[in-house]
TrEMBL record:
Pfam families, per the entry: LolA_like
Stated name of the protein: Uncharacterized protein TP-0789 domain-containing protein
CDD domains: LolA_like
InterPro entries hit by this protein: Sporulation_related (IPR052944), TP_0789-like (IPR033399)
Species lineage: Bacteria, Bacillati, Bacillota, Clostridia, Halanaerobiales
Sequence ranges assigned to domain Uncharacterized protein TP-0789 in this UniProt record: 77-260
Length: 262
């Protein structure tokens, strides 16, 4: 009787172990799921942020700028972002607006709003190492709509699972890059590093994030650095203040508002 019971328990143990291993495989996240989690963390229904932007040239010179950013996801799912430079005086009031896939730029010196055409989205944003396309992906739309993700590696990090993804553009996406490589923190769903490869397959830029803090219940990278490995320049963005709980009026996401003062 005892031997029969023991044998039954062993069979049951192996069955549980087998099913458990199968469950781990079934529950393993796909690249698309990881990318979706990343996009959701980086987006916010409402976000107001003050940042310092520091531009370093290849020769080592430095320029400092202050920016204020508003993000909002509308009730219809539309994604909106407004960025205004507040300092120094020579660029204060310069503003950049994104509503879904449409972009506009306002420069006080020109006194008018200029629409950013699709071909111009791959140009550098205000002399920084980020393109208009980069600003859109990192600050508004995310990556899932334009890229197909594949998990190339994963391991247990100090604070949880860490994933390495390879992103290939979807057909017709019209993005500037031939491939992106991401390292994603699976405990915070934030990118630790993004490598950008140009259409020639050459590594062009590397984005790194740090200073990860939980602010008002949301994980936030308080420092981002984009390095252009070809040019030797880099741009650093430091978060000075951020709020996710303030309501934002829809009227600020209009071209008319771009032309208003600070």
């Amino acid at each position: 009787m005892f031997k029969k019971l023991t044998g039954g328990l062993l069979v049951l143990s192996f069955l549980v172990l087998f099913l458990g291993m199968g469950a781990v495989e079934v529950l393993a996240l796909t690249g698309e799921e990881i990318l979706g989690n990343l996009d959701e963390t980086m987006k916010a229904d409402n976000k107001i942020m003050e940042q310092e932007m520091i531009l370093y040239t290849g020769s080592g010179s430095e320029r400092n700028r202050e920016v204020r950013v508003w993000n909002k996801i509308g009730e219809d799912g539309s994604e909106k972002m407004l960025l205004k430079f507040t300092a120094p005086a020579n660029i204060a009031g310069t503003s950049f607006l994104i509503v879904d896939d449409d972009m506009w730029l306002y420069m006080p010196a020109l006194g008018k709003v200029r629409r950013i055409a699709g071909s111009a989205k791959q140009g550098n944003f205000m002399g920084s190492d980020l393109t208009y396309e980069d600003m859109e992906a990192l600050g508004s739309t995310g990556f899932k709509n334009d890229y197909i993700a594949k998990v190339t590696a994963e391991e247990e990090g100090n604070n949880g699972r860490v994933y390495q993804l390879e992103l290939i553009p979807r057909e017709g996406a019209g993005v500037a890059y031939s491939m992106l490589e991401l390292i994603v923190d699976g405990s915070k769903w934030l990118p630790l590093e993004i490598k950008y490869y140009n259409q020639s397959g050459e590594l062009e830029k590397v984005l790194t994030t740090s200073g990860h803090e939980k602010i008002e219940g949301r994980w936030t990278a308080t420092r981002m650095e984009m390095e252009n490995v070809i040019e030797g320049s880099r741009t650093v963005l430091k978060v000075k203040k951020v709020s996710f709980n303030e309501e934002i009026d829809n009227h600020i996401f209009t071209t008319r508002y771009l032309e208003r003062g600070l």
